[in-house]
From TrEMBL:
Protein's name according to its UniProt entry: Glycosyltransferase involved in cell wall biosynthesis
KW Transferase (keyword) present: yes
Protein source organism: Anaerosolibacter carboniphilus
Pfam families assigned: Glycos_transf_2
Glycosyltransferase 2-like domain boundaries: 5-128
InterPro entries: Glyco_trans_2-like, Nucleotide-diphossugar_trans, TPR-like_helical_dom_sf
Keyword Transferase: yes
Keyword annotations from UniProtKB, A to Z: Transferase
GO molecular function list: transferase activity
UniProt superkingdom: Bacteria
């Protein structure tokens, strides 16, 4: 059975660190905590779980801190988490089972990263990340901000999930200030830097600048295809916000250059047609969204609503406007199968059943 080193970098995480470590302490054979300058009780809490707590002088580079943490590992595999991540009970058991059965030829294990949830606790957005890597491969982190673990070799895509339980509202200006200090020093951004700097600009509501950097990123022609697709979606959303409908449509369609159509883009195109009252066109795109096969093992972001209930609910709206009430009712019922307690869907159910009942009585 392989041994596991848990490697984490932390700063001022007293509210969440124990929760994270409690969820993994029975799985990890070694816990390594690298502190980058905490001013609260983070280090004291960490020392309740491990004596391997190290200080790292912050140099505006997350990859450097993570690589330092990895350098302290001594076990066969390295697992990494952030302090506001946890393994739910089901996933703890899955990870324990994997630990017992993991093929030693595997170089990296990917896991789902569940990012957001609806009121019922259902996952609404997620992606995959390389989480457990073979130490002897000496995989390295790259990137000052939004760092990436560069892996290769034999990859195993597990069904284990890491759950993100964010407590702090945001990171303030930390990340964008790191990027802007790098720009001020005259650094040339990599394609990945351009993409993530654009994300930071968008998070700070600097829409025009964000659009500029997303376009610079796409124009390099060197971006990872999942980032290209995401950039097109974000550009489309920016132009929707700016009421520039032509560019919103342009970038939704451009996403098809990089991979097979995704339901997120099809729903966005459907929305753009629907807002122009082009209902037949909107319905066509929402229908396409319902017919696509959900991506399984890629590492990109997935908005689960677009692959489940949302296009059916929108088809309900479209068919109602077209006077096709039976079809509208059928798609509302499919949406209800995903969201049985949604009040708007339940209202639609009553509405269409009353219409169809009256029609049947007349017939």
């Amino acid at each position: 059975m392989p041994t596991i080193s848990l490697c984490m970098i932390v700063k001022n995480e007293e509210k969440v660190l124990a929760r994270c470590l409690d969820s993994v302490k029975e799985i990890a054979d070694e816990i390594i905590i690298v502190d980058t300058g905490s001013e609260d009780q983070t280090k004291k809490i960490a020392k309740q779980y491990t004596d391997k707590v190290y200080d790292f002088e912050w140099i505006d580079e997350f990859a450097a801190a993570r690589n330092f943490a990895f350098s302290k590992a001594s076990k066969e595999y390295i697992l990494w988490l952030d302090a506001d991540d946890v393994f739910m009970e089901e996933d703890q058991q899955k990870l324990l089972d994997l630990k017992k059965t993991l093929d030693p030829s595997v170089d990296s294990v990917t896991m789902h990263y569940n990012l957001a949830f609806d009121a019922k606790g259902n996952v609404i957005s997620s992606l995959r990340r390389n989480r457990l890597v073979k130490r002897s491969r000496n995989f390295r982190w790259e990137g000052a901000v939004h760092e990436c673990l560069v892996v290769g070799g034999v990859i195993f895509n597990s069904d284990i999930a890491v759950t993100h339980k964010k407590e702090r509202a945001d990171t303030g200006n930390r990340n964008i200030e790191i990027y802007e200090r790098r720009l001020a020093r005259g650094e040339v951004f990599s394609p990945r830097d351009l993409y993530y700097y654009a994300n930071e600009l968008l998070d700070h509501q600097r829409h025009q600048e964000a659009a500029e950097y997303y376009i610079k990123f796409l124009d390099t022609g060197q971006g990872w295809f999942e980032d290209n697709i995401a950039a097109c979606g974000k550009l489309s959303d920016i132009y929707i916000h700016l009421k520039d409908w032509d560019n919103a449509m342009k970038y939704s369609l451009q996403s098809f250059k990089y991979d097979a159509p995704r339901a997120e883009a099809c729903c966005r195109i459907g929305f753009l047609f629907l807002r122009q009252n082009m209902v037949k066109q909107a319905a066509a795109w929402y229908k396409i969204a319902t017919q696509l096969e959900k991506p399984g093992e890629n590492l990109g972001f997935v908005n689960h609503a677009c692959w489940t209930w949302l296009p059916h609910l929108q088809l309900c709206v479209c068919y109602d406007r077209l006077g096709l009430h039976q079809q509208a009712y059928e798609h509302n019922e499919i949406a209800r199968s995903y969201r049985p307690n949604d009040q708007s869907i339940l209202y639609n159910k009553q509405y269409f059943e009353s219409i169809l009942k009256i029609r049947n009585e007349k017939d």
